[in-house]
Recover the amino acids of this structure.
């Protein structure tokens, strides 16, 4: 049994079957990549996992508890955090303030003023936020306003905002999308460090095969909303079905 068990998920948008009978098992303490061409259903699947979309049928269990029907912040409180395709940060706040925000969102599930004030003044939470910022090499930039950060640093900040919630499962939607080569390398190294230091299970959607093959231990290939193959990176490389699914897209 994996920490995340997805069974028989179907999701239609009008006449389009975005997900068709998706089964997926993510083992605890592994990095599991979900790859597939554009429109394969990867983001739709992630949206189901974090409660942003309700599937037409199927089940999603996290650590033995059903995820479906719960609100996004409840799923977050269960221990699932997500890094979005475009970093979701508070542009007008400092790096440090951005990291504090998920602390009260997790504790209280709301943005009530008393919760905000208590978290912003708590020493232990400040220490935790600083430790996480150090982990993602952003401590020196803690007073910078988030909008002034580079794309790579915004990604680091978003990662810190997830880590401060102490997740057991981190979902990453194309964490290197639109990054220059150097930032991509930095992100790969950052994820490896997080993995080693914190042992967080990760499910990662990614287009860049260099990222996938340097991070993942298991890979599921989605094509037209349905898993085509699930295997180790070595077995996925050069798999005829994978080549077929990627024809004219990525080089596998
Ligand atoms: N909210 C929506 N309404 C209608 N169609 C959608 C919606 N979201 C996604 N789709 C369609 O579902 C399919 C899968 O999309 P998506 O999950 O975004 O693919 P991927 O992330 O693999 O590129 C695509 O054909 C897309 O156009
Ligand atoms: Mg997508």
């Amino acid at each position: 049994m994996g920490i995340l068990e997805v069974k028989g998920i179907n999701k239609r948008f009008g006449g389009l079957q975005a997900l068709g009978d998706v089964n997926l098992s993510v083992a605890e303490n592994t990095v599991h990549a979900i790859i597939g061409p554009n429109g394969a259903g990867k983001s739709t699947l992630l949206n189901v996992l974090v409660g942003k979309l309700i599937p037409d049928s199927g089940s999603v269990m996290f650590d033995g508890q059903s995820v479906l029907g719960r609100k996004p912040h409840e799923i977050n409180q269960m221990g699932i955090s997500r890094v979005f395709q475009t970093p979701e940060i508070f542009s007008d706040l400092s790096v440090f303030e951005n990291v504090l925000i998920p602390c009260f969102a997790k504790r209280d599930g709301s943005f009530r003023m008393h919760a905000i004030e208590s978290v912003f003044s708590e020493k232990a939470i400040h220490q935790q936020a600083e430790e996480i910022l150090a982990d993602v090499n952003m401590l020196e930039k803690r007073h910078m306003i988030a909008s002034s950060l580079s794309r790579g640093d915004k990604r680091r900040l978003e990662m810190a905002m997830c880590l401060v919630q102490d997740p057991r499962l981190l979902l990453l939607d194309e964490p290197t999308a639109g990054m220059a080569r150097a930032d991509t390398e930095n992100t790969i190294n950052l994820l490896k460090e997080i993995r080693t230091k914190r042992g967080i299970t990760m499910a990662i959607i990614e287009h860049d095969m260099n990222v996938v093959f340097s991070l993942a231990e298991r890979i599921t290939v989605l094509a037209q909303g349905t898993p085509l193959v699930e295997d180790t990176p070595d077995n996925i490389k050069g798999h005829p079905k994978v080549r077929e699914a990627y024809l004219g897209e990525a080089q596998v």
